[in-house]
Design brief:
It comes from Meganyctiphanes norvegica (Northern krill). The protein is mainly β. Helix content is 2%, strand content 51%.
C-alpha cells in the first residue's frame, strides 16, 4: 500500500512483533499496478500452554484514521495433563469392602482420557466419567480382598490427540485388613533327624506307625500379621 503499511503481530492484546521486512521479490503486480510489498514474519520458537485457546492476529495499517486490516487465527495446543489427583482412600480397608475412588486430571486440550489400573491390571468397569474444556473426572468402585493388600491403584491420564506421549498419573497403595488364612504342612522325621516334606496328596493318603516322628508346621498369612498359633488335637 501507499504509504507503506505498518504490520504488527498480536497475541490477544499483547504486541509480539512490529518489525517490517522486505520480500525476496519486492515487487508484485496487483490489478496491473506495480506496488512494493512489505511483510512481518513472526517466528514462535516454542509453542507453550500460554498459547492455549488464544488468538494470534496480524494487523496492517497505513492510516490512523482508517481501521486496520486484521487477520486472526486461533491457536490450539495439545499435551499431556499438567496434574492428576487421586482421592485418598480413607483409613484401612477390610477384605470384602467396596470402595469408591475418584480421579481428576486437568491442563490438557482436548480433555484427557483417564484409565484405571489395579496391580498392573486394567480396570474396564468405570462407574462415572465427566469431561469439560480442559479437565476430566472419573471414579471407579472396587471390592478389595486380602490379595489387594499393598498393591497399587493407579489413574493414568493421556492426551487423545497425542497417544504416543507417555501418560501421566497418580497412584496409591492399598492397605487391606483380612483374617488369617492358615495352611498346615506335614513332614516325616527320619532317624538321625532328617526331615522329609510331604505334598498335599501324600498327606491325605499317609499312614504312620506308632512311635514314628512327624513334624507339623502351620503357616498363616494375615493383615495385621498373626501373633498367636495354637495346635489342637481332636
Amino acid at each position: 500500500g501507499t504509504p507503506t503499511p505498518n504490520i504488527t503481530w498480536w497475541l490477544g492484546n499483547k504486541l509480539l512483533d512490529s518489525t517490517l521486512e522486505q520480500l525476496e521479490d519486492p515487487v508484485i503486480e496487483i490489478t496491473s499496478d506495480m506496488k512494493k510489498v512489505v511483510s512481518n514474519v513472526l517466528h514462535i520458537v516454542q509453542i507453550s500452554r500460554d498459547h492455549l485457546s488464544t488468538n494470534l492476529s496480524c494487523s496492517a495499517s497505513n492510516n490512523p484514521g482508517i481501521p486496520p486490516l486484521v487477520a486472526t487465527v486461533a491457536l490450539i495446543t495439545s499435551g499431556i495433563p499438567l496434574e492428576v489427583t487421586l482421592s485418598d482412600v480413607v483409613g484401612n480397608l477390610t477384605a470384602g469392602e467396596r470402595v469408591l475412588v475418584s480421579c481428576r486430571a486437568w491442563g490438557s486440550q482436548p480433555p484427557p482420557l483417564l484409565h484405571w489400573w489395579l496391580n498392573g491390571q486394567h480396570l474396564s468397569l468405570v462407574s462415572n466419567e465427566t469431561n469439560d474444556i480442559n479437565w476430566s473426572w472419573s471414579e471407579v468402585e472396587i471390592e478389595v480382598n486380602g490379595q489387594d493388600n499393598g498393591v497399587k491403584l493407579e489413574c493414568r491420564a493421556e492426551s487423545p490427540s497425542m497417544p504416543y506421549l507417555s501418560p501421566t498419573g497418580a497412584h496409591q497403595y492399598l492397605t487391606v485388613y483380612y483374617v488369617p488364612e492358615a495352611h498346615m504342612r506335614l513332614s516325616r522325621v527320619k532317624a538321625g533327624g532328617e526331615v522329609i516334606g510331604m505334598d498335599e496328596n501324600s498327606v491325605r493318603d499317609a499312614a504312620f506307625l506308632e512311635g514314628e516322628a512327624i513334624k507339623l508346621t502351620c503357616d498363616a498369612i494375615a493383615n495385621p500379621s498373626p501373633y498367636n498359633f495354637t495346635f489342637m488335637f481332636n
